Amino acid sequence: MNNISYLIKQGIASVWKNRFMSFASLCILTVSLLLVGLSALVMLDCGIILDSVSDKNEISVYMEDGADIEHIKDVLNSNTLVESISYISPEEGLAEMMEQYKEQSSLFESLPYNPVPPTYMVTINDLDKIDTAVEQFSAIEGVYKVNAPMDFAGFIRDIRTTFTVIGIVLIAALGTVSIIIISNTTRLSVFARRKEISIMRIVGATNAFIKTPFFVEGMFIGLLSGVFSWLLTKFIYEGLFSVFSENLGMWSALGMSSILQFSDFCWYALAAYCVAGAFLGAIGTVFSTGKYLKV
Amino acid sequence: MVELKNVDVHFKDGGGVDALNGVNIRIEDGEFVFIVGDSGAGKSTLLKLLTREIAPTSGRVFVNGYNLAKIKSKKIPYFRRSIGMIFQDFRLIPDLNVYDNVAFVLRVTNKPKRTIRHRVPYVLNLVKLTDRAKAYPDKLSGGEKQRVAIARAFASDPGLIIADEPTANIDPALSYDIVKLLKEINKCGTTVIMVTHEHSLVEYFGGRIISLKSGEVVFDDYIGGAGEDE
After folding, report:
1. Which residues from chain A sit within 8 angstroms of residue B107, using beta carbons?
2. What CATH architecture is B1-82+159-230?
3. Taking the model in full, what pTM does it have?
4. Across all residues in chain B, what is the average pLDDT?
5. pLDDT digits (tens, 9 = 90+) for A51-102
6. 3-state secondary structure at position A19
């Protein structure tokens, strides 16, 4: 078709002609895409952290002084949830703690006794049954306390659920708002070009010919919004990532060292933003051209 | 060829109005026809029928081989390519120059670039606007604007040109030039239907006159005129 370039030029020129409304659409769509994109990234990272926590599904079983260590080991080994067991003596435990809190090591040295109890590090084979395992291990005679990462796992799981809900609400609400805004921009475009459209009709332009520039306009605004959202995401995500990196020691214990770097998904994100933007732009245009262009 | 057989147009809006009643008209290819009548006589309704902006309530309308009473909406754009329209308010696109306003109709109908490059200068020469090709509508006089509109209507070489009061918004002295131009186009074989309320023009040029009154054809015949052979 000879007219493709002509129609594309008309569509892009229309973005400039209605620049104020186009700018409003661009801003709304950019913010919508950005919020949805960031929510999706938080969901992804929560998933990764959960996986990482699952890899560290170790339960610390602290024993009382004088407890029958071998008996406890036998009981633990007989439990079907247990995958492996390793013993940490009070001396090893103290050394590990002093290594972890180097700055406070003198404090540990000044203690008159070793506060670290003999411990079994128990790896279980099913993280979903961690509550049952903790309950069963606590009931063993001679066990003083059982520590499990379930609180943190639950916390991360809650965050993921929250952001999933937020993400779905954002997609529904902001998607609708974006479509309405784009639709209004196209309506203004149709109004601005009404004379041209009436001439087009009378000289025999097809519906597709009349509608294509508006479609291009919507998709162009959507694509630009996609690119801007991507740039903002890069800026925000890399900023947050550098904060995590600076405090990696603290966060790595929580499994956060494994979260995605922007470079891992850079081009996928750009493609996703552009496709989503163009799609929303096109949908908004379809609504208004269908409704306001009775060709 | 244009043919209307027992055409009625009834508008439900405004309490129900009979815009056309039992109209029968036949215009052969290559004719030049004036359609006259007072306000409310049904001229605009007739033009809307001929361009298929409205469909008849009853009866049959044939234009350039298309049955407009039964045409599918998808086919309407292709039918409209077979006619050229001229309006009293010119309807030029303000941000396109003279050349592009004329080329617009060819672009819209997907004509090859080579055709556009040949055809536009030809029609601009015909309406004597070659030297104004780069001017924008706001720099043109009323007469020049109407000549651009005529060039645009003729650019796609349609079989039929319909002119809706083409002299209404221009200097009376230039009205004769506009009709002469349409007559010239008619000599190329194009059928021309011109709606007007200027009786002096009709009397001067003569030819076939169709007069409407209250939605009915009250006169359809040839009259002689001083400028008939121009």
Report:
1. 2-3, 6
2. 3-Layer(aba) Sandwich (3.40)
3. 0.68
4. 91
5. 766 666 778 899 988 888 888 999 999 999 888 899 998 888 888 877 777 7
6. helix
